[in-house]
Structures are given as C-alpha cells and as structure tokens.
Amino acid sequence: MRSLRNKRIANGKRPLTRSEIMGRVKARDSEAEVALRSALHARGIRFRLQRLVQGIRADIVFPGARVVVFVDGCFWHGCPIHASLPRSNQSYWAPKLARNRERDSEQSALLAASGWTVVRVWEHDCLPPHPTVVENVANLVRQGRQGMQ
Q: CA-CA distances (angstroms) from residue 140 to 14, 24, 67, 85, 109?
C-alpha cells in the first residue's frame, strides 16, 4: 500500500504533509494581527512591529508609552473558547501547548516587572477587531504617553 505522502488525488497533486502544513504557519503578520494593526493605524495610533523588548519579541510595540501587544492565536495559546487538542500525537501536542501558555505567563510577568504594560488579545477578538480591544489599547497608549510627560 502506498503511503499518503505519495498518494495522488483527483487534481494530480498530493496532499500536503504535516511538515508542509506546519511550515505554512506564520510567525508574524497573521490575519488577526494585520486587522488589529489596521484598526489602530486608522485611529492615528503609530507603533513598531516585531520589536525585541527585554529579549521578548512583541507583535506590536508602543515604545514611548511602554505598551506591548501580543495577538495570541486561539490554537497555539489555548483560547478557552476555541482551542482544542489535536486527536493525533497528543503526547507531543499537550505538553507543547501547555508550555506555550506557561511561556506567555512568564513573558508577561517579566515585561510587567520591567515597567511595560502588556496586552494579550485573542485572535478571535481581532477578526474583525472588536471595538473594545482597539479602545483599550488606545487608552493604554494615551495613558502611557501622559505618564511620560
């Protein structure tokens, strides 16, 4: 019996392997991240992208206000509403996804201890961007800038 890797489907192309699928997952500029950035930009709020802060790469950074925003994917970061554990290879996925959540907590604590305001937003709250999310970020940036004066 031929393996799935070599199996041809009706259109002549083989199905993607797990490795190929995972290779297509974006580390930056996800649809949710771009949507949130667009909403912030439309409000006249300017920011930096993918900057290192205390050795941690944040999705959106407001250096003057000392605010960092992370757009957490529902699957990768364990959204309580949308996350689900894959049915195959659970011995790999369960610890990996748990470690992602632990790392999120550690990074948030480190940044907060260094005087940064950390905002973590779920992917589903950015597609489209929920008005309260955009307003919360705008308020935090405004407050951070006022505190610097």
A: 49, 33, 7, 34, 17
